[in-house]
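Input C-alpha cells:
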C-alpha cells in the first residue's frame, strides 16, 4: 500500500506541476499579447497625436492656398508647397473630390447644383485624412438632375 500511496502522490505532484506549467504559459502568452497591444496603441498615439495641432493649422493653410491662387505669387506658392509636403510627410493626405462620387464618409454636402447626379461639382473646403483616418471632411457642392432641384 505504501507503494500505491507513493505512486498516487507522485501522480498528484506531476498533475500539479503540469497545471502550474500551463498557468505559467498562459500568463506568459497574456503578457506578450499585452506588450503587443501596448506597442500598437503607442504607435497609434504617435500617429494621431498631431491631429489637434493639424486641425488648428489647416485653416491657415486654406488661407495661404487661396491667397496664392489670387495673387499668383511664386514665392508664396513655393512656401505653400513646402508646407503641404511637410504635412504630407507626417501622414496628411488631401481628399480628392471634384468629379468624384459624393462620399458622405469623407465629405459634407453644403449645397446642390444642376449637374450629374451625386457627383461633386465644386469643392468649397479641402478635406484631409491623417494616416488614412478622417481628420477634416471636405465641404462640397453636389450635382442633382435638373428635375430634382
Amino acid at each position: 500500500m505504501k507503494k500505491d500511496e507513493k505512486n498516487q502522490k507522485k501522480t498528484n505532484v506531476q498533475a500539479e506541476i503540469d497545471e502550474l506549467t500551463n498557468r505559467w504559459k498562459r500568463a506568459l502568452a497574456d503578457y506578450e499579447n499585452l506588450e503587443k497591444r501596448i506597442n500598437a496603441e503607442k504607435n497609434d498615439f504617435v500617429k494621431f497625436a498631431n491631429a489637434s495641432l493639424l486641425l488648428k493649422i489647416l485653416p491657415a493653410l486654406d488661407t495661404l492656398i487661396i491667397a496664392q491662387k489670387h495673387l499668383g505669387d511664386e514665392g508664396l506658392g513655393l512656401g505653400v508647397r513646402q508646407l503641404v509636403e511637410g504635412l504630407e510627410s507626417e501622414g496628411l493626405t488631401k481628399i480628392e473630390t471634384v468629379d468624384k462620387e459624393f462620399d458622405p464618409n469623407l465629405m459634407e454636402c453644403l449645397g446642390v447644383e444642376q449637374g450629374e447626379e451625386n457627383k461633386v461639382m465644386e469643392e468649397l473646403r479641402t478635406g484631409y485624412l491623417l494616416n488614412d483616418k478622417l481628420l477634416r471632411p471636405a465641404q462640397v457642392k453636389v450635382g442633382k438632375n435638373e428635375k430634382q432641384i
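The chain has a mean pLDDT of 92. Strands lie at 92-94, 107-114, 120-125, 128-130, 133-136, 138-144.
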